[in-house]
Amino acid sequence: MRPQPLNRRAASWSVVPPDVLRFPMKRIFLHLPAIALTAWVGGLWSIGYLAVPLIFHAQPDRQLSGMLAGEMLKAVGYLGLTCGGILLLHKICTVCGKPEKIWREQTFWVITTMLVIGLIIQFGLSPVMANLKIQALPLDVMHSAFADRFKILHGISSILYLMESLLGLYLLVKSQPEQTSDKSDFL
Question: Fewer beta carbons within 10 angstroms: which end of the chain, N or C?
Answer without folding.
Answer: C
